[in-house]
Amino acid sequence: MSVLEIKDLHVAIEDKEILKGVNLIMKTGEIHAVMGPNGTGKSTLSAAIMGNPNYEVTQGEILFDGKNILELEVDERARLGLFLAMQYPSEIPGVTNAEFMRAAMNARRPEDDKISVMQFLKKLDKQMALLNMPEEMAERYLNEGFSGGEKKRNEILQLLMIEPTFAILDEIDSGLDIDALKVVSKGINALRGENFGALVITHYQRLLNYIVPDVVHIMMDGKIVLTGDADLARRLEAEGYAGISKELGIDYKEEV
């Protein structure tokens, strides 16, 4: 079992504090969901975990199996076993999906144990079939000219191929229709098990109908203010953030 622990995390962007003391412990075998209003710091949390240099950690620790990873570069964190599926994946012209994924897989393997072409293609065919993706997607340049739904499926394909220890999924449901949402959820659920954990950042209960979380965290004003099981997400759907904040005595102004 591996453990990802976030302790008293404070993060600033251009001297503006966004995260104001986030505490969270996630273990492999668990799916955690983070929900909260716009601007509360959910995406900042994902960026800080992966080491985005635009986000300054001013206080706290991020521990991977007890090791503070704040000094590690993004690629070092990825090799350690962290994976970020971004809300807006970047386009990389000149690099095919297949080339990118094979390189990413080999980066986590010893020099004398690189995955063979045949092993790679066999796994790629299997996972693309699971996600109902056409074979030609493998030879297209990474995210170039992809629709929003294709980018999201492609992120999940990378997740299935790389098999990280922990995945951070930042609004992976954003802009998806119900069919695409089901396919993306199917891919994430396929990895559930004792060697995998995920932090799912979302605004909506509908995603959590397909990826049922073990733990739900409500985030407001840069902090986790309430933690519970899957019922907490359903309660949030019924009461809204205004209802939750009133109960907790938090000043919350609902967006119009």
Automatic annotation (TrEMBL):
CDD domains recorded: ABC_FeS_Assembly (cd03217)
Name of the coding gene: sufC
Family stated for the protein in its record: Belongs to the ABC transporter superfamily. Ycf16 family.
Listed NCBIfam families: sufC
Domain ABC transporter: 4-246
Residue spans crossing the bilayer: none
Pfam families (UniProt xref): ABC_tran (PF00005)
Keyword Membrane: no
UniProt key word Transmembrane: no
Keywords: ATP-binding, Nucleotide-binding
Highest taxon listed in the record's lineage: Bacteria
SMART domains in UniProt: AAA
Protein name: Fe-S cluster assembly ATPase SufC
